[in-house]
TrEMBL record:
This is Prenyltransferase. InterPro entries: 6-hairpin_glycosidase_sf (IPR008928), 6hp_glycosidase-like_sf (IPR012341). GO terms for biological process: carbohydrate metabolic process. Residues 335-354 are annotated as: Disordered. Gene3D superfamilies: 1.50.10.10.
Length: 354
């Protein structure tokens, strides 16, 4: 298990990669995408760097398009990949619910709620017959026919977080309730609704991580892919047919294992990927083990963030730890949110903005 000091060091490294305007890229002078930026912002909240997390969310809210979408990629604040992806649109809801659990800041929820509402309205408009959600909009603004399992599993969590936020704000969203019910059915019962990307480890564990599969179904899912993806002592493969383990996927598997009640195995996976840790608390993205080579040669905020979120889920150190530790009981409309408390990882005062 990582120590609190190690978690703080990793959070500090993430904060050091953030731009003065709040943008949170993969690394300095690298690309920024909305999903990974939200993940990194959640890690900042885990470490008590709440003003920096809010700045990252505000950066995204300020660049939302009128239809509720974001570009798939930004560099230096400019759109460099204009495609509008449903998964990118949905994840702000997860980040804002995590922020509420971390801080209890209702004013910030009120501020960001319109952006979340526009984003999830777009997601529901992108739902296809049968319940799956299109991965992206075509240039003419219509949903593509392709649906991706990992993205849909993440959207299942996003819609439920959106419904929890709707309950908090007092603005019921019945369309989201219908959408998430149909999406859950598709994830559990309609595998043919999604593109065949079974070689990717994320398609293996994400239905458990996002909360669509629980109980025996979750256990069966994890058991079915274990030998294909897990490399003992190193982590998990990103794709089943390549000798390449990646830190973020390994930590996300750890989150799924915690959600399934398998904490010992989750601890093993978090420990296994620590060979990717750099002296400054950052993490290399991956490792090609036959070549004894780190690849790609980069240290990413989203890899570091996945480590922080896994450590929090295992330690139960912050009020937001349960968002990933037990997604099957994500707060629903009508159930009050838990009262926030001081995070044990926040061992320093919030620095002034750079």
């Amino acid at each position: 298990m990582l120590s609190a000091a190690q978690v703080r060091q990793t959070v500090d490294w993430i904060a050091g990669e953030q731009y003065s305007d709040g943008g949170l890229p993969w690394f300095r002078d690298g690309q920024l995408d909305p999903w990974d930026s939200v993940e990194a912002a959640m890690a900042l909240d885990v470490g008590g760097r709440h003003e920096r997390a809010r700045a990252a969310y505000r950066w995204l809210a300020g660049r939302q398009r009128p239809d509720g979408s974001w570009a798939a990629e930004y560099r230096a604040g400019a759109e460099t990949a204009p495609a509008a992806e449903s998964n990118h649109a949905g994840y702000l809801a997860v980040g804002l619910w995590h922020s509420w659990l971390s801080t209890g800041d209702e004013q910030f929820v009120t501020e960001l709620w319109p952006a979340v509402r526009r984003a999830l309205d777009l997601v529901t408009r992108m739902q296809l017959p049968g319940g799956a959600i299109s991965w992206a909009l075509r240039p003419d603004g219509t949903p593509d026919d392709l649906a991706l399992l990992t993205g849909n599993a993440s959207l299942f969590q996003a819609l439920r977080c959106g419904l929890a936020l709707a309950d908090l704000t007092g603005e019921a969203q019945p369309d989201w309730e219908l959408a998430v019910a149909d999406l859950g059915t598709a994830l559990r019962e309609r595998p043919d609704a999604f593109a065949d990307r079974g070689r990717f480890s994320m398609d293996w564990y994400y239905p458990v991580l996002g909360g669509a599969l629980t109980g025996a179904a979750a256990q069966d899912r994890l058991a079915a892919g274990w030998d294909r993806f897990v490399v003992p002592g190193l982590g998990i493969r990103c794709v089943s047919d390549r000798p390449w383990v990646t830190g973020a996927e390994t930590c996300e598997l750890a989150l799924a294992l915690v959600a399934a009640g398998r904490t010992d195995e989750a601890l093993e996976q978090l420990a296994a990927m620590q060979h990717l840790r750099h002296d400054d608390g950052s993490y290399w993205t991956g490792f090609v083990y036959p070549d004894d080579a780190r690849w790609p040669v980069e240290r990413t905020t989203w890899t570091a963030a996945a480590v922080v979120l896994a450590a929090d889920a295992l330690a139960g150190a912050t009020p937001a730890a349960g968002l990933f530790a037990d997604p099957g009981v994500l707060p629903s409309p009508g159930i009050p949110a838990p009262a926030p408390s001081v995070t044990p990882f926040a061992g320093h005062a919030e620095p002034s903005r750079r």
